[in-house]
Amino acid sequence: MEKGFNFTKRMEQSAVKTEIVTKYFYAWANVMLSIPSINRIGYIDLCSGPGKYEEGDEDSTPLIVLKKIIDNDKWSKSIVCMFNDENSEYSKKLEANVNSLIGVDSIKYKPRVLNETISESTAEEFMKKKIPCFSFIDPAGYDPLSLKLIYALTKDFGSDMIFFFNYNEINRWIKTDVQEKNMIKIFGDEVYRQLRETLPQGNPKKREEMIMNGLVKALNNIGLEYVLPFKFRFEGSEKTSHYLVFASKGVKGFNIMKEVLSKNCTKGVDGVRLFEYTHTAYRADGYQLSLLGSFNTPFDKFKEKLCERFRGKTLTASDVFIQDTKNTEYISSEYKDALKQLEQEGKIVCDRPATERKKGTLADSTKITFKME
Known about the structure:
Blueprint: H1 12-32, E1 41-45, H2 61-70, H3 73-76, E2 79-84, H4 88-99, E3 112-114, H5 120-126, E4 133-137, H6 147-154, E5 160-165, H7 167-173, H8 180-187, H9 189-198, H10 204-221, E6 226-233, E7 240-248, H11 251-262, E8 276-277, H12 299-309, E9 314-316, H13 317-324, H14 332-344, E10 348-350, E11 367-370
Parallel strand pairs: 1-2, 1-4, 2-3, 4-5
Antiparallel strand pairs: 5-7, 6-7, 9-11, 10-11
Helix pairs in contact: 1-2, 1-11, 5-6, 8-9, 13-14
């Protein structure tokens, strides 16, 4: 039997992933097509499935994206879509579902539906890619993933991606000889060797943090400076199932993704935003998404870190955000809230004090001096 997810019924986790991917893609497409020199961009889904779930005839990500493109006159003339699934039954169904869409003929670049196994040659083929593309890789396992493929899909200007990282399976196999080649493909030789030598047998929390930090480092090593991993637990369990990982070369895409996620998250103790999926059966207030490490910083601690990092420096409010954003889960408006509080506490000085500004505001261009104390 060919590998692939079960598309019988839409599960809640699938709906969450689709929402994240599509919201980011829409925002990304608007930004890219606002650049005068760009008139063509791409959407790539390498593990696309059949396009619909059998129960309820619900659309999955490919058809949701295509319908949005069809409904937007500018997008329908500017976006190139490529879908692939190694399951031949899924790819045939997807092609039929794409062709049956009302208005699909209005799309300038006919969507391509492929039935190929992702391999080293796939990465080599994408090395020829030139236009900005947003890519989504959501495989059943981890075989399709490689740093080479990720680099090929993100090397061009403006190209970002989200991929499924099967933490549960990778954690199981990372220290075994039988999967060494696959692990080197994903982490690179240097990071993999370090992980294999240092990962503890016990302490699952520390082990998870080390593996995810290793993945971030591996992505940084191929030029993807801005990485945002958000995790999903098994239903009814504290155990991590997998992560969706966002990766970009640019701070703008990173901040767009933080904004996308922030709209679907609640805040926990001390104002910490939780980017962690929890099934609604176990949370009365819906799902959440959560990050590791520095992305669990209480707001007061966040303010302290800003003072430590920028002690004695003068820079604009916008530059504070741009220079620090990849260190926290906080979004632009929350950086401004922090700066306004620090001003009230006498820890920073603004070139235009609060008494001379419209109440509650802080312009991006406001020059801020962080005190030495």
